[in-house]
Specification:
alpha+beta; four-stranded mixed beta sheet; 11 helices
Length: 284
C-alpha cells in the first residue's frame, strides 16, 4: 500500500472508520502509539513504526526518526508534556510518517508551533490536520460544540477531556471550523506570545500580529491586569477600545504549569473595528 495520493483528511477518515467499526470502550481515548505501530506493521511492513518513546529534544516537541538501516521508524516526543499534549504530538508525527516519510527519509523534527499548525510550513499544517481529525473527529466535535455556539473554557475543556488532548489543541480545532468571530491569545509576562483567529475573525481584521515583535496586552483587559478570578474565566464583557475597536467578551485564566495566560475572545457577528494598539494609546 502506498501513501501517495492520500491526504491528511482521508487518512484520518480511514482510521476513524476502522475505530468506529471496532467500537472500543475508549473510542476517543485510544492508545495512539499502539495504533501507529500496529497499523504501520500491517500497511507498510517494509518500513513500520517500531518505537514510540519520550526523549530530550532540544528545541523540538516531537520528531519522526528513521533507523540507521532506513527500514524502521520511531516517534519521539519531548519530555515534560502533559498526557493530552503528548498524545497529540504522537498523532502529529504519525501524520508525518503517513504523508511525508518518503520525501524526508532523514526524518522530521517538529516545534510546538509546528505541531499546533501555527506555521506556514505545509507539511506541519498537514500533520496537524491529520492529528486533529483523527483524535477529534469533526462530526462528533461539531455535535459537542455546534459551529454557531460561543463556548467558554469549561465547554472546550470538556471536549479536551473527551478526546484526551490538550485544551489548546481542542480550542484550535474549534477555531478552525466555527462560524463565530473568535480568537485565542496566549501571553507571557504581559505580552502576547501568539494568537490564533477563527476564519471569520481573520477575514474581518480581528487578529493580533506578533510576527513583528512582542505585543503588549491591553491594560484595560482582565489578563492585562492579571485579574485571574473566577469571573474572568467565566467571561467579562468589555466595551469598544479595550481589545478591539468593538466590544469583546474576554475569558482568561493563568496556567501555572506552562507559566502562561490563556485568553478566549468572542466578538460580535459583524466587524466594527480593528486591533487597538495599546502602545499608541499609552505613548505620551
Amino acid at each position: 500500500m502506498e501513501s501517495g495520493g492520500w491526504g491528511p483528511r482521508r487518512w484520518a477518515s480511514h482510521f476513524n472508520q476502522m475505530l468506529n467499526l471496532a467500537n472500543p470502550p475508549d473510542r476517543y481515548r485510544f492508545d495512539i502509539g499502539a495504533l501507529a505501530m500496529e497499523t504501520s506493521r500491517s500497511l507498510f511492513p517494509e518500513d513500520p513504526i517500531t518505537k514510540v518513546d519520550e526523549e530530550e529534544l532540544d528545541g523540538f516537541a516531537g520528531a519522526l526518526v528513521p533507523s540507521k538501516s532506513r527500514t524502521k521508524w520511531g516517534i519521539v516526543y519531548g519530555t515534560g508534556q502533559s498526557r493530552g499534549r503528548r498524545r497529540f504530538t504522537i498523532a502529529h508525527e504519525f501524520g508525518h510518517y503517513l504523508l511525508h516519510r518518503k520525501k524526508y527519509p532523514d526524518g522530521i523534527h517538529s516545534s510546538e508551533a509546528g505541531i499546533d499548525g501555527r506555521t506556514k510550513l505545509q507539511i506541519e499544517r498537514e500533520a496537524n490536520e491529520f492529528a486533529s481529525w483523527l483524535l477529534m473527529p469533526l462530526d462528533d466535535f461539531r455535535r459537542q460544540v455546534p459551529p454557531k455556539d460561543r463556548p467558554d473554557f469549561d465547554v472546550l475543556g470538556d471536549c479536551a477531556d473527551r478526546y484526551d488532548v490538550s485544551l489548546v489543541a481542542a480550542i484550535l480545532h474549534w477555531l478552525r471550523y466555527t462560524e463565530r468571530r473568535a480568537l485565542l491569545v496566549v501571553s507571557v509576562d504581559g505580552f502576547v506570545k501568539w494568537s490564533w483567529s477563527s476564519e471569520r475573525a481573520l477575514t474581518t481584521g480581528a487578529f493580533i500580529r506578533t510576527s513583528r515583535g512582542p505585543v503588549e496586552l491591553p491594560p484595560g483587559s482582565a489578563v492585562g491586569q492579571e485579574l485571574f478570578t473566577p469571573e474572568a474565566r467565566t467571561g467579562v464583557d468589555h466595551p469598544t477600545g479595550i481589545w478591539f475597536d468593538e466590544p469583546a467578551r474576554e475569558h482568561s485564566f493563568r496556567s501555572e504549569r506552562y507559566d502562561a495566560a490563556y485568553t478566549l475572545l468572542h466578538l460580535g457577528d459583524e466587524r466594527t473595528g480593528g486591533w487597538v494598539d495599546v502602545r499608541r494609546k499609552t505613548s505620551p
